[in-house]
């Protein structure tokens, strides 16, 4: 289905697929991306990009463009959604000094567009209307088959086909895990909501019983991104039709005025049910490798899903570069078995930690009763310059298991006095 032979086929042109394509093309490889949709694009609103991602964008020469299209917020503020009291904060200018790269918020479509243009400049072949239906290993590489009956073949296939990955079925028989939580989004012109007690320059997260609400500026401050997340009673009751707008209003009924003021500007015609999958430690079979949400879809509470996908591609690119392979008459010269083994040695464990921590953060954010008060006491007591809970994420992306930092050990809530 391609016009010439490629070294690498990437299935899926989301943020994960495009960033992997870029990472490999800038190492001199011929890369072809197959996307099922009729056009490349991203739906949804904002994305938070922590220093472990902006560091990679910088290495790709894309940080300037991302900064120009996004916003560098001053602080991340966590508040209680019931009484609006501040619980703790991260000084993001200090974060930039500490980790050497900024914390950036950006519209998804802007980041996707940056990656798409960079792929184009790097010579990546970008094909649409190509729904991959099966994968198989063949001598010296792997082959993919498409819904229209066509096939394509390369030395390696990177499956970046998202939460409902077809490729994942080669490795494990599992299903997405429903959290019974649903997200509503709403990116609106800032002037429309300027009177709603909003912070112009901060990422603000209101955490409340079975719900939370996030706000941050986008596009140089022209827009405000809002995300409202709540537990669906209908989902818990096993009803099919869950997450509907009537549930949104009911879920936030007990929240403070700034949250209440934000709710009317949420989009009500679509919502995102929140799923992750249990971590898996095998991502590679022969010359087929999973990447991004196909490998490790998280709940979004750590805002690391797209970042992990970008890190995956970076790690592949670095291991290709480390080989210093030379193209021969037969192909790229890359020892893919070595590259994929190095990838699989380091990425699944990191992503397992993030996926499981994201679940735990969700639990912590959504507490009620005494446990909510203990959580608040714990967060109030945190030194705002204590970075132990993000050091293991915001530092440089590990290329080997030895580089992977110690994981943060949470303080058990039961040990916190009321
Ligand atoms: C509410 C919410 C907020 C979030 N906030 C953040 C955040 O602040 N920071 C962050 O880092 N992450 C965040 N995330 C997570 C992040 O959005 C995802 O982890 C990330 O977009 C995954 O990218 P991906 O390319 O792996 O998968 P996807 O974005 O799902 O892309 C998969 C692509 O593959 C294509 N495809 C699928 N199947 C096929 C097929 N069979 N053949 C061909 N093409 C196919 C799809 O059309 C799509 O283009 C958030 C998620 C949610 C739901």
From TrEMBL:
Keywords, in A-Z order: FAD, Flavoprotein, Monooxygenase, Oxidoreductase
EC number: 1.14.13.1
Name of the protein: Salicylate hydroxylase
Domain FAD-binding: 6-356
Cited InterPro entries: FAD-bd, FAD-dep_Monooxygenase_BioMet, FAD/NAD-bd_sf
Domain of life: Bacteria
Pfam families: FAD_binding_3
Keyword Flavoprotein: yes
A GO MF label: salicylate 1-monooxygenase activity
EC main group: oxidoreductase
Necessary cofactors: FAD
